[in-house]
Amino acid sequence: MVEKDEAKKRGRSSSSSSSSSSGSSSTGSSSTGSRSSSSSSSSRSPSRSPRRNRPTRGGRSRSPIRRGSPPRGARANRGTGDRPDRRSGSPPRRRRSVTPPRHRDRRDRSGSGARRRSPRRSSPIARSASPAKRVVIKNLSKNVLKAHLEEIFSIYGAIKGVDLPPDRFHAHIHRGYGYVDYENHDDAEKSIKYMNGAQVDGLQVQVEMTIGRQAPAPYRRISPIRRRSSPPPRDRKSPIRRGGRSPPPRRRSPPGFRGSGANNMPLGPSRFRRGGSRSRSPAGRGRSRS
Amino acid sequence: MSNGQVVSQVAVSQDKPLDREKLCPMLLRVFCANNRHNPVSEYNNRNGGSVPANELQMYTWMDCSLRELTSLIKEVNPDARRKGTTFDFAIIQADRTSTRYILRDIGNTMNGQRGIDDHKTLQQCKFEVGDFVDVAITMPNQQRRFNNHGDRRDFDRRPRSPIR
């Protein structure tokens, strides 16, 4: 449900009576049509206000209160507990020298990350959608759920799916951005027109078309240049140098396979971001060295 | 003109003046407990993000002060209206680098007495929309128990300096 009570006064949101009712109705003054009593979303929902044609009403300022624990129903069910732990299988290797297990360890860790990334989390949406029908919504608050996005953005046309990538550590929290796939390109344009700069849950969101696959290309150039321009100091103590014996292996495999790094933050299609290549790269190094 | 005057170069971002008529409110989830904060372990990622049971949901703005929050809590919580009741506020945030949640104290207020934290706003406390607020409500005749997390041992020694 969409709560649309704005408060009118600047000052403290006055404590008015009778707002403690546990209902989910917007107790604000004359909420113009609590539109679309959503069946899907849970009972708490961020308030939203489309940017255009917002009614400006006079009234008291207030902060309505609702009570009760909502069913956190509509939620992407990405489980947390079932991450495969590769390391548990292999007993600690004692017989080898000190360093190789460390490498191996590191590779394993990133390997499990890669596996976690692979089939389950890449939604079918990401694969099939052509970019032109896909919009990205940035600056979402943590209160916004997938169902909220569905509800808000289905106003502008039929949507094929919503993607709200989860946080790295908190599976039920998203990263602050989400994607909506429309059936038609025009609907996507319309949603951008109306929702870009609008407020969702007290935050102004940006809605844009997603940029295509070729976008992260210029980023890639940076790292070889930077490395060449700063030669490593020669007077290092030996053990470190021995470890870094090989610059050539460091030069990582074909640039085309390196996804945009984690620095390239929220924008591109989500499959670029997943997992991030940062965790992958040590694996490549370890492999090429051994 | 500013010669004789020391101006901090490390400008703490002051609250942008926030127009409550233009900006729509945000959802604020408040969890109250008596005499203590809810244990941080009750905020976790299990079953899709579980939280303590007693939840208050408010719609408010980032420039909401602690005093204002207090009055909102008192509105729904008649027990907390007695004079001398203390409200300890903390922000619960999801840690960015681990799967835990973090409790961060931001201040306290007391019924019928002005305090230093009264006009602290959520914005000043680096609240982000979607964080939780945990409130420990202590009645005047009871004693605050902050045992469940260790850094609060010095709490009762902290002066509740009334302002002015």
From TrEMBL, chain A:
Keyword presence, RNA-binding: yes
Sequence ranges assigned to domain RRM in this UniProt record: 133-212
One annotated Gene Ontology cellular component of this protein: cytoplasm
One Gene Ontology biological process: mRNA splicing, via spliceosome
Ranges in coiled-coil conformation: none
PROSITE patterns in alphabetical order: RRM
Biased composition (Low complexity): 13-48, 121-131, 278-290
Record flagged with keyword Nucleus: yes
First-listed, main subcellular location of the protein, grouped into a coarse class: nucleus
Localization in the cell: Nucleus
Keywords attached to this entry: mRNA processing, mRNA splicing, Nucleus, RNA-binding
GO MF annotation, one: RNA binding
Protein name in UniProt: RRM domain-containing protein
Classification of source organism: Eukaryota, Metazoa, Ecdysozoa, Nematoda, Chromadorea
UniProtKB/TrEMBL annotation, chain B:
PANTHER family in the record: HISTONE DEACETYLASE COMPLEX SUBUNIT SAP18, SAP18
Annotated InterPro entries: SAP18, SAP18_sf
A molecular function (GO) term: transcription corepressor activity
Species this chain originates from: Caenorhabditis japonica
Stretch list, region Disordered: 143-164
Bias kind Basic and acidic residues: ranges: 148-164
GO cellular component: nucleus
Pfam families: SAP18
Record protein name field: 18 kDa Sin3-associated polypeptide
